[in-house]
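Session log. Operator J.P. requested a structure for one protein chain; no other inputs attached. Running the standard single-chain path with token output.
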Amino acid sequence: MSSPDEEYVCTLDDRTLLKAINELNEDPDKRPAALQSLRQWLEQQPHIQCPTDARFLLPFLRARYFGEPETRILLQNFLKRRRKFSKWFQNLDPSDSQIQAVIDDGAFLVLPQRDNDGRKMLIIRPGNLDFSGTRSYTRQDIFRTYACIMDYLYLLDEMTSVNGAVAIVDLGNFTVKQYMAITKEEKADFLQTWQSGYPARIKKIHVYNIGALADVILNLIKFCMTEKIQQRVRTHGQALESLYREVPMHLLPKEYLPSTYEGSHVGTESEIIDIEVRDHKT
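Structure written below.
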């Protein structure tokens, strides 16, 4: 019988593999032993049911710097929260019509190019979401869409499991009514799930379009963030020029660039949505 790792082929480029070695304590020669040790522990936990292939387990090892006790805790938190909030994780199929509707609204834009550090870029725009239920999707579908994107980024994209991701949160058009549509408990559960129950490497969060109202909302959200994540938040008020100093213009959609800009960009928002839908289906 073949080993679960015989089918695993590392897809990291040389630069990213070196980063995994230097920053995440990943040793290609010891990788199989680390995976096998984690599998042996899982076999002794009959209450835990999860995949044991390298593709699934490696993001958890990398997120905890190949420390097995810490990896066990993260994996248990991940599975526990998927059971507890099962509605958020049901049918995470990008071709699902409700998930498609959320993506079509442009609330979550996964940009097609990585930054200079190999990190994936994601624009989150809660003001584009319809929390009223009058559209074809519900609040739970919004959570499902985010879960679908996170699975795609961190469980299926090996480069991102090492390099991490950068989020740009655009609070334009985000209202108190939208903020209040999600209960206090849901907000806390959501933030806790993605901070301590997921093998995510969020390297930086840029917050843009911060008016007086959005500033109040942001402070409420930051209150629920871990100190580590709070330190990675960068605010840019309503000035795109401030964002440009940290995010190269050629990585942004056309709509986020000045009309006088003549350089390259990653496409229009509609083009990015088309790419996002296509990539998630493959």
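Operator note: The first helix runs from residue 14 to 24.
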